[in-house]
Please model this.
Amino acid sequence: MIHKSKNLLIRTLSFFLVLTSIVSGYAQNYPKVRVDESKRNFVCQPIENKIIQMQSRIKDPELSWMFGNCFPNTIDQTVKYSIKDGKPTTFVITGDIHAMWLRDCSAQVWPYMPYMKENKQLQQLIAGVINRQTASVLIDPYANAFNFDKEGSYWESDLTKMRPELHERKWEVDGLCYVIRLAYNYWKLTGDTSCFDSEWQIAMKLIVSTFKEQQRKTDNGPYSFMRKTSKASDTQFGNGYGNPIKPNGMICSMFRPSDDATTYAFLIPSNCFAVVSLRQLTEMEKSIKKDDTFANECKALADEVDAAIRKYAIVKHPVYGEIYAYEIDGFGNYLMMDDANVPSLLSLPYLGYLDKKDKIYQNTRNFVWSADNPYFYKGNTTEGIGGPHVGPDMIWPMSIIMKALTSDDSKEIGNCLQLLKNTHAGTGFMHESFNKDNPANYTRSWFAWANTLFGELLIKIEKEHPELLEKTY
Model:
């Protein structure tokens, strides 16, 4: 028995030595840009093993190098784990901005969740994110980004109800949706319910009551926002309440997931996301909390929002037929565009709202990835979607990643890999955006969400289109 175990150990070590040698060979012509292990905030062996395994399979040496840098970036450098009041808590910065966005932190740890079963410390780290999000929602459900403590921020002068715990207070429907999404999938993957205590339940009820307030059936609700700025997309119209809306059952969002102001408050991708999240919360409330009354309230709200989307958000385009509008106001006005940030119209299957083969989605997809979308840009060797956040001609790698994540077409996915390889400007990392004709002209050298999303894409390709990893691009 001992002899067999010894042989198994020798074979295992030999296997990893071979893999390490292969990976080293792939990366030898590229600089070491991943932070040294001694300086990493969190080390998880299953993730390290996955990096070695993936790099041995990715035949394109540059893509292999990029994966090894990008996939672990969130745990390497953005997480701060501790125990508070006997519970794990994890603060996650977004990268080069030292603050925790509800949206970004959920998306940043998302690709690591399948490895929780192999590593209890990783599970505790992600449970800590859930606990931190609960505490954040209880501080202010209308805030999008939070400080580590009460240090305040450079947005303290914003004309809204700022608090020292808040980095920014832009009301974005998707932020609260991401809180539910993370909790639901944590539960599904682990079966652990320790995060879902009385404080979590209060936070969930606060999320739903906030959604209902922002249906604005009787008044504008308690939230308003204005900023003293020369950038129009950083403040809101109508004395901070946005352009007028006609209530229709959907939820108003004053800002998009790009943190840019909405033009029309019914932001369709975020309302689609809310439908998915409310249905997930319905299931959790029934199964975990046994609170049928609140579960039924969640379901009724999801059904109401979904019915309004299907009645009011689908419009007839002269070229593409029936497609989803990006924003509407309830009066019959609508905005035809898509933004790179998620939720987007492009990302609706990724978020679970509909099937990627859905006819209206396919029409919408054709529209958003075309010159008819005012924020689609095509350069000499690249193309993709941007948005008003950083201005004209700037493509977000996130849009290219999302195009691949929502595709079954191996040729299209391969083209996306080629585009992504052309965007990092020699840095080995994804960026917020880059100029369509010059990837070296980019914004945000450290944007952790885009990095881990890139890793998520390559792992999905390994499962569904492994032949694409055998190519060079």
Notes: Residues 1-26 have pLDDT under 50 and may be disordered. The CA atoms of residues 461 and 468 lie 7 Å apart. The two ends are 48 Å apart (CA to CA).
